[in-house]
Write a structure and sequence with these properties.
Length: 182
């Protein structure tokens, strides 16, 4: 029996995917966040790439991209789960990103020398920390349980998600620096 070939898709900033194809979805993150959901019984999954934690008072979508804000992403995931007749508790959920891309900008911040923990994120003003906190909070509020996460720290991440198996690979990159040691 031959397997169908694997298709590839690159997820841009603000993109969202949910389905059951034999597809490898890849994205690159800095301060942004990617969330993967995978249903082990129905073998379907979803992935998002959001830029900011919340839309705030603005109601018009930014640049027509559906998943720029974390709160909009949760609406997209919920609509997809309704269509597939699944519930949050049935998914394996993973969270990635929120890296600080410019560590020298934190030189005077109290975040600079702290480990990137949930407690430290509560007081950190960096967008990466705020994105992580928003993602974790929204997932918990919507009944999801995190199976794994690779968040915070300094530098980028390349994320590859195999929709048909739920496997996720992360490759870390360096932060951008102007010569100041990170």
């Amino acid at each position: 029996m031959t397997r169908a070939p694997v298709a590839h898709r690159f997820l841009q900033l603000g993109d969202f995917y949910f389905g059951s194809e034999r597809l490898r979805v890849q994205t690159v993150l800095g301060t942004c966040i990617a969330i993967t959901l995978w249903h082990p019984i129905k073998r379907l999954g979803g992935i998002c790439h959001y830029l900011l934690p919340t839309r705030g008072i603005a109601r018009a979508p930014a640049s027509g991209l559906p998943g720029v804000y974390a709160d909009d992403v949760m609406e997209l995931f919920e609509a997809s789960m309704r269509r597939s007749q699944t519930r949050a508790q049935e998914y394996q959920v993973k969270l990635f990103g929120g890296g600080n891309m410019f560590p020298e900008q934190l030189a005077t911040s109290k975040c600079r020398d702290q480990a990137c923990t949930d407690r430290a994120r509560a007081t950190c003003a960096s967008i990466g920390c705020r994105n992580i906190a928003a993602g974790q909070q929204m997932l918990a509020e919507h009944g999801f349980t995190l199976a794994a996460r690779d968040v915070g720290g300094h530098g980028s991440r390349q994320v590859s998600f195999d929709v048909w198996s739920g496997d996720v690979w992360v490759r870390r990159g360096a932060a951008v620096s102007d010569g100041v040691p990170a």
